[in-house]
Structures are given as C-alpha cells and as structure tokens.
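::Encoded backbone::
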Amino acid sequence: MGTIDMDPKLNDLSQILPRVLVVSRRTVRKNKFVDFVGEYHLDLIVRYGCVPVIVPRVTGVHMLLESFKPIHGVLLCEGEDIDPSLYESEISSLSPEELQEIRETHASDTAIDKEKDSIELGLAKLCLEQNIPYLGICRGSQILNVACGGTLYLDLEKELTNKLPEERRTMHIDYDNYDGHRHVVRIVENSPLHSWFKDSLDGENMEILVNSYHHQGVKRLAQRFVPMAFAADGLMEGFYDPDAYNPEEGKFIMGLQFHPERMRQHDLDEFDYPGCPAAYQEFAKAVIAYQKKLNSSLSVPKTLKLDSEMENKRKMLVRSFSLAKYMYVRGAPGKNPSKESELEVGAEFLEVNDH
C-alpha cells in the first residue's frame, strides 16, 4: 500500500496552530446521549487562527485533562446550572416551593451536570495556575467566578429582579423571543469592552443592547476580577482580571454573561455591533502569543542541521582521519606511532557520529 507524502511543515500541527479546548454539552437525540458544541464559537475560533479541540463531557474525563496538552487556550460556554454546593456556603433563602417553581420554569437549565462541572472547574483552575488564556461565555463566566471563590444567584428573578422597583428590573431570559430578546448594559469606561464597542457608543452614553439566555448570574464577584459591564438591575454582565490581560503577551482571563457570538440576525452573518467578535479575536491573539511563549520555554537544543556543503566537508574529514588511522597502524614512514591512540580516539568519535 502506497504512502502519502506529507508536507513536513504539517507533521507537527501543535507547532503551527494553537489548540483551544471547548467542553461539549450533552443532549438526547434518538433515545441516546449526544455531545455538541455551538458552531458560532467554533467558527470564530477557526476564523482567528486557532484549532478547536472538543473535550467530551463523559464520565472520567475530569481526571484526564493533562492528556489534552498542549493547551494554549480554553473557551467555556453555555450549559446547565452549576451545582450550588460548589459555591453556596450558606443555605439558600428560597423556599422549597420557590425552588420547585424555578425547576419547572427553567427545566432544561436546572438539570445539573456534575461531570461537566468537574471538567470545566478543572480546566478553569488549570488556566489560572498556568496562566493559560481563558474566555468564559455565559455559564463559562460563572464557572470562572466560582473557580476563584465567587458566588451566584440561584435565580435572578426571585433573588434580584423582584426586589427592585419596576424601572430597574431587567428580563434576563425570554422564552417567547429567545434569540431576539435584548436588554441594556452599561459598559465600564476604559475596560476591554469599552475599547471593543467604543465606535458604537453615543458620546458619553456607555450603553449597548445585548442578548440574554440565563436565569442565574454573578452574585459576589471573586476578588481578583474587575467589572466591565452592568445591567440596569445591577447584575454584572462582564468582568476580567486586569493583571492577567495583555493579549499581545498571551494573557487573557475574562468572563462575559451575554453571547457576543450570537448577537446577529438569524439569517445573516452581520453582527449587531462591529465589536461583537472582538472578544474572540483578542482571545485568539492571546492564545497564539501564549503558544509561542510556551514553545519557546519548552524548546531544547537540537542537533545542528548542517547544509550540504558543510556536510560534505565533515564527511571528507571523517575519511581523512580514518585513512590517517590506517596509515599509523601500518607504520607509515615519517609518522610518530606514539600519537596513534590520540588519533584513534578522534577517528572513532567522528565515525560514530557520522549519521
């Protein structure tokens, strides 16, 4: 069977395109579990020069995360509610009746997936420990906050919205207008979000409209993070670590509660704002820089690859030493046999290394 000649430059893809890990989500299709990842995320990862590596949320994968290395970036996105036991240090103020109502209203989200929790928290902590670029979208932002000691609202409507005056209330999910629903967020000045959306802001008006698909959100922000945007009800819609944000140097730790990748018309590829894909673009920039930095730190001295002219000279030298050795052994006239052992060592060394 013939072999396919591969471009040597493609032999080690890990040295060419950086790898971004994305954890799948589970659904049921034809009476069996199926893993999937939204294509909007994957399209943008590929568009900006990275390779998406899908991590399946199957039993035991949380113990195999080191096997996915090299990891140059992690993108965590939507999914079910995070297990409250991972962040709630005190008993919820919600009654059993309220909790049951939440489960019925948000049935698809409240079905906790502990395996996905374990995998994603493990990846988030790996990123934080090794300074691997991390972008969290929706649930992915909540995972990041929980991984750093922050907490979440179990249900925004019952724990936040209903306690506010009507003019400050925000609808964070609308099942009747799922993809079309938008609400206002106010962007924090001089934040990364500000730089991405500045061309769409009207003077001192720092507001944009974002989509919203969640009934939970950040309650107490972990200490290391700084807010980037707020909804009218005060809910944090974006945050980042300013000490770990410099895409050109491979630094990027950020969470966005909204979905910039989905802020577009269903049948069009045009985004609501030019700044919508910027989070992915800057994340990819950081991933590429991190890969270069990682490859540089892992590189070890390699055998010098000589050009053809020098290689020919080296082989000639080997033959000369071999011939000289032979002449000394035969006792050629005018030669000093006392030097034979020294020459022998040199000739043998060159012959051994003649490969």
